Automatic annotation (TrEMBL), chains A, B:
It comes from the Eukaryota. InterPro entries: GDSL (IPR001087), Iah1-like (IPR045136), SGNH_hydro_sf (IPR036514). Pfam families: Lipase_GDSL. This is Uncharacterized protein. PANTHER family: GDSL-LIKE LIPASE_ACYLHYDROLASE FAMILY PROTEIN, EXPRESSED (PTHR14209:SF36), ISOAMYL ACETATE-HYDROLYZING ESTERASE 1 (PTHR14209). Belongs to the 'GDSL' lipolytic enzyme family.
Amino acid sequence: MRPNIVLFGDSITEESFASGGWGASLANTYSRKADVLGRGYDGYNTRWALFLLHHLFPLDSSSKPPVATTIFFGANDAALLGGFRERHHVPLDEYKDNLRKIVAHLKECSPTMLIVLITPPPIDEERRLEYARATYGEEAMKLLDRTNENAGVYAKGCVEVGGELGIPSINIWSKMQETDGWQKKYLSDGLHLTAQGNAVVFEQVVRVFKEAWLHPEEMPYDFPHHSEIDGNNPHKAFQPLVSFPKFNNI
Amino acid sequence: MRPNIVLFGDSITEESFASGGWGASLANTYSRKADVLGRGYDGYNTRWALFLLHHLFPLDSSSKPPVATTIFFGANDAALLGGFRERHHVPLDEYKDNLRKIVAHLKECSPTMLIVLITPPPIDEERRLEYARATYGEEAMKLLDRTNENAGVYAKGCVEVGGELGIPSINIWSKMQETDGWQKKYLSDGLHLTAQGNAVVFEQVVRVFKEAWLHPEEMPYDFPHHSEIDGNNPHKAFQPLVSFPKFNNI
């Protein structure tokens, strides 16, 4: 009965229901109005994401398409060639083209779907080096996986695709860097988000959803608010719902 | 593709995706394995919950039933007659009978569904009086809405129904009171849960899910983990999924 909002992306989406996560905050904001489903895949780039499209968003009528989908890839695509995450690298042009394919598929799935692109977040290189050393030893020091500059190139590419296709995009790479101390404030390991970083993503997604048409305050409750229920005659509040043969047998 | 876990209950379920909430924690724990859907209705008692059953859990084959459902009512049913929440009161025998009806409906919906009953939490009466005074003025002081003793009577009734029907129950009323200072540690307004209170519910639900068969570590990922994907030949990892005519056109 409720519409679905799908969050499609990499680990930053997969982790979005952890404490303070932006996915959980969205689910809370749209509580009783929409279901928020996490479709985040740790380590995935846009090339691998394409393999999931027909499974997650089937084109047949077997399942209702989401009313809104966020597409939040790029952090892995932007991994450096030669770095310890090079297996995840996707060239910029292919990244942009993959985003176009994902959007085209979603539009085919539902022409009315609200589609929002989110750029990769900025990178705290200092912390990435610490993380690499702790995880992979001294060897990894020479093989920095990501730079902030390169993440910015992919963020720019993502925003360009949004403009080209006429769909909203959130430049989280730029947005986060507007705040002093963003490196430690918003990023836990130089890449993934702290609770404060999650709050930034959450605020931006809700802002864009509202600017489009997905305004939580304006969406109907799935069932009557308790204040509308007459304790002595509860049937009345639920009368409009009575359309099931077995309903009156309860 | 993923199974659904449904959380059916009152405001304590509706709020469960707020920061530190037990619903969000469950969604995080079952990430990439099951979708956790909140079906919490602020102020609802079991009498009003019955009106939702056929909508939330239809008996026709139009939607796949959840693999697991938590039933977390009683906090409103146990509201005192004569208190400022008496509109929500449901007598104990009817509460127990309504729980039986809900369970019977879910079993009809799916005989294999894992059904878990959760009792109402304990009540911090001191805080409830403060809350009543702040919200309703001095008048409300004479009209305490809930007592811990009465919540305990409903908790006992809930556990009895679980035993009678052979389904697991979580006595959160007892469990929370095992810890010194439970009043302020676990309850924010004498009734609803703090982050620590949410953590207790989360731990108990996961424990019971695991003791049954819904063990997150043993459930398969919906798609390959990134470490299983060969960067040079990603098709291979996704080969078992190729069953869609359009799949190779991407």
